[in-house]
Amino acid sequence: MAAITLIEAVNAAMAYELEHDKDVVLFGEDVGKNGGVFRATDGLQKKYGTDRVIDSPLAESMIAGLAVGMAAQGMKPIAEMQFMGFIFPAVDQIFCHAARMRHRTRGRLTLPMVIRAPYGGGIHAPEHHSESTEALFAHIPGLKVVIPSNPSRAYGLMLAAIRDPDPVIFLEPKRVYRIVKHEVEDNGEEYPLEACFVDREGSDITLISWGAMMHETLQAAEKLAAEGIDAEVIDVATISPIDMDTILESVQKTGRVCIVQEAPKSGSIGSEIAAEIAEKAILSLLAPIGRVSGYDTVMPYYRLEKQYMPTVDRILDEARKIMEYK
Amino acid sequence: MTTTTVASFEIKYHQYLDAQGKPTQELPAFAKDMDKMRKLYRDMALLRAFDAKAYALQRTGKMGTYPASLGQEAIGIGYGDAMTSEDVLIPYYRSTGAMLKHGITMEEILLYWGGDESGSNYSVAKEDFPICVPIANQIIHASGVAKAIQMRGQKRAVATEIGEGGTSEGDFYEGINVAGIWNLGVVFMVNNNQWAISVPTEIQTACETYAQKAIAAGIEGVQVDGNDIIAVKQVAEYAFEKARNGGGPTLIEAITYRLCDHTTADDASRYDDPKVKEEAWKNEPMVRLRKYLEANKAWSDKDEEAMKAEIAKEVDAAVKAYEETPKPGPELMFDHLYAELPELTKPQREAAIKLAEKARGAK
């Protein structure tokens, strides 16, 4: 067992499946010889050959469409979008075909495929490299959208994504690719999809987040504890389909909720979670639902990105406000 | 200034029968087999009769929007005839001819255009894709399927088809480009029927041919007379053999004319010149083949009459089966969304079923 980063965990999970399942094939721009621009696929081509770890031409729609074709033949493609900001040419293939093939053929053709994409802000990247557009994908029935927040979850959820019989959009919060290391045993054990993780148990308020923002949220929870506020922290992890049961159970216990996300506020996953809570647990609430999110603005270029992204302080302010509500 | 030519290209045009059904060159062996040619004539006649019936069903409110293949029958029947059951078809909405040839039934096709996805749950062609509606996405699917076939070392080809307008899409180039780089066994058929709904070729491209778009992908591109089934089949046979045996992809531009509307929802009289269309009727594929058969004493009015009666029976039987297919229940919206329906969606399924039951009860 070794301590590894989130990106090393992604690599380890893909290597495990390449090793154990001959149908797994990996492709995308720069994923082969270069090992990916973030090194997510580092060393995989050398170990598994150019037949299974393939440098593809530069065309995102093609990358997604090839995955559809290969998966329809029973292969298990893992296709990389170099940055989520470049995924949009592939949206046609993902929405119109990947998400719909099982339904359109009444289950005759199914697509066990994964599309990986690094996403989110905070690394001083060029324009179009920092957005959080996960809600666009979560809105489409037929897709699963998974976001790991730490190394062990990246390993277990990536294994589950590859083995899942349906298309999975696997979004990797690149700001936290290397900020923490976890001891992860490379034993091929997957984590369940469609399951939230309760990362901290508490009784006063439920903090809900996913992806990179889990780190700020957990820090906020520790600070709240010092103030005598006992926060429960939930990592949603699979943002579609969402495990609402775990969230509702927590809300019914604490009566207070704060949702934290990097994405713009309106029409977001945070909006959806808030609506579900309002529909199913409004009578358990002791205070209005609070949300800390990116602004409803264009994701700014990097001189302003720190001001755009939620901080521990913003989470604390919102949580205190929710706690003070009578 | 001294320059050097670093690349040049030419596009070959293939035709065996002219519009009068007269050979323009030595015919391939299959074209001298009159049983075979009679069968191809019948296949085209079946497609034409099926289209007419589908149009009638739409016009009488018994089916939704439908795109016919009138005047273009030689393309789908020609390349469909060059396919084996092991090959994979990735059809678009005007691939009815190839679909019928590849074992997709008339009943399934009617069910599909009748608004039921069950029509894409093919009983025979288990690996074929459902009809691709968004333009040009299918070109990439064909390359993906061919990549899987190549990785598994199988000797099977993949066929896909697109209208000439579709070749303006990025996915068209992305798909043929990767097929060239990876040497994938795909036959890309371009049905050049002169119209993308109302948009003619001069608005679609500055290229002299659509076949030459293959050159920019480093693959072979050829042009055939799409109203000459002998040319379509002969060139397709070559392309499929090549695809099955590691020879890589071929793009075949088949030149024809869309004698029908784009779909039942279109009215081509708004943009099509009736004089041009009248000329195009003289060039259509069935008259030409019939003349060829007659010249070889392989067809008579009596044969025509008998064939039409047989075909009408077959089409009517398919229509009957289509009309007798029960309407799908609301559970089908949910049951093939994922391998397992998400917990969050289960109450929606129950609610939809209850609503349908209530509506049935109210009747």
UniProtKB/TrEMBL annotation, chain A:
Superkingdom assignment: Bacteria
One Pfam family named in its UniProt record: Transketolase_C
EC annotation from Swiss-Prot or TrEMBL: 1.2.4.-
Domain Transketolase-like pyrimidine-binding intervals: 4-179
Cofactor(s) the record lists: thiamine diphosphate
EC top class, as a word: oxidoreductase
UniProt KW keywords: Oxidoreductase, Thiamine pyrophosphate
MF terms (GO), sorted A to Z: oxidoreductase activity
Designated name of the protein: Alpha-ketoacid dehydrogenase subunit beta
TrEMBL record, chain B:
Residues of the Dehydrogenase E1 component domain: 42-330
UniProt KW keywords: Oxidoreductase, Pyruvate, Thiamine pyrophosphate
Catalysed reaction, written as an equation: N(6)-[(R)-lipoyl]-L-lysyl-[protein] + pyruvate + H(+) = N(6)-[(R)-S(8)-acetyldihydrolipoyl]-L-lysyl-[protein] + CO2
Cofactor(s) needed by this chain: thiamine diphosphate
EC primary class: oxidoreductase
Pfam families associated with the record: E1_dh
Metal-binding in keyword set: no
EC number in record: 1.2.4.1
Keyword flag tRNA processing: no
The protein's assembly and partners: Heterodimer of an alpha and a beta chain.
Function: The pyruvate dehydrogenase complex catalyzes the overall conversion of pyruvate to acetyl-CoA and CO(2). It contains multiple copies of three enzymatic components: pyruvate dehydrogenase (E1), dihydrolipoamide acetyltransferase (E2) and lipoamide dehydrogenase (E3).
Name under which the protein is recorded: Pyruvate dehydrogenase E1 component subunit alpha
Organism: Kangiella aquimarina
